[in-house]
Write a sequence for this structure.
């Protein structure tokens, strides 16, 4: 079946440090891949997405590249800020529309300290 | 971008009472909405898939008689927690998939924190 595995947290970084959160997936075919972010007490917000191999999603300084050969979609940011403290979820979808549930990883909590 | 709202954002109720949570897609039509439950510091657990005009599809282990889902229009789905008990206390999140969204992405509501005393 389809599944997403992401690195266990929590991850604690100093401001301006480099961030990597690993995400790998198992799926047949070519799923779409997503990173969602959840700030404390809020719902999930789409951070970035990629729909085919070698696509790079980017937003707010975050990037992730769809790597079919390694079935990975690692999230990176060159210089984190305190405001990036949140929980990050990697997810996949086998559907071309939004009518199929997403498959989520377990989430990685990031804390950035000044 | 697509916006999904939830109401209420927080609710406290007494054990044995029922609580209704509304999920609305504000600027798009959602033929399918999803209801998730999230325990503290954990990932989202899919409870059910709600299709407009038809019965919801519940995930294994979710009591359909306890968590009533209605999706009467293309912009509104409701989740009613019936005869709530303290163990139902949780963060409930809805999401909606737009048929024109492409790539299978979904748009999430801000969540409803339910506390049953």
């Amino acid at each position: 079946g389809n599944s997403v595995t992401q690195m266990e947290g929590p991850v604690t970084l100093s401001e301006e440090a480099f961030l990597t959160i690993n995400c790998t997936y198992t799926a047949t075919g070519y799923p779409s891949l997503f990173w969602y972010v959840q700030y404390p007490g809020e719902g999930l917000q789409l951070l970035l997405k990629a729909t085919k191999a070698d696509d790079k999603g980017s937003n707010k300084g975050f990037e992730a590249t769809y790597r079919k050969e390694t079935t990975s979609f690692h999230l990176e940011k060159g210089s984190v800020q305190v405001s990036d403290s949140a929980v990050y979820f990697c997810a996949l979808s086998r559907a071309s529309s939004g009518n199929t549930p997403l498959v989520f990883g377990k989430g990685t909590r990031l804390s950035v300290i000044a | 971008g697509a916006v999904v709202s939830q109401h209420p954002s927080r609710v406290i109720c007494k054990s044995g009472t029922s609580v209704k949570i509304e999920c609305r897609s504000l600027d798009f039509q959602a033929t399918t909405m999803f209801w998730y439950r999230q325990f503290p510091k954990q990932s989202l657990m899919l409870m059910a898939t709600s299709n407009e005009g038809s019965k919801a599809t519940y995930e294994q282990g979710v009591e359909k008689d306890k968590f009533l889902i209605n999706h009467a229009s293309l912009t509104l789905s409701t989740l009613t927690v019936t005869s709530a008990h303290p163990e139902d206390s949780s963060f409930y999140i809805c999401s909606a998939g737009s048929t024109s969204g492409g790539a299978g992405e979904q748009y999430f509501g801000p969540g409803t924190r339910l506390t049953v005393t």
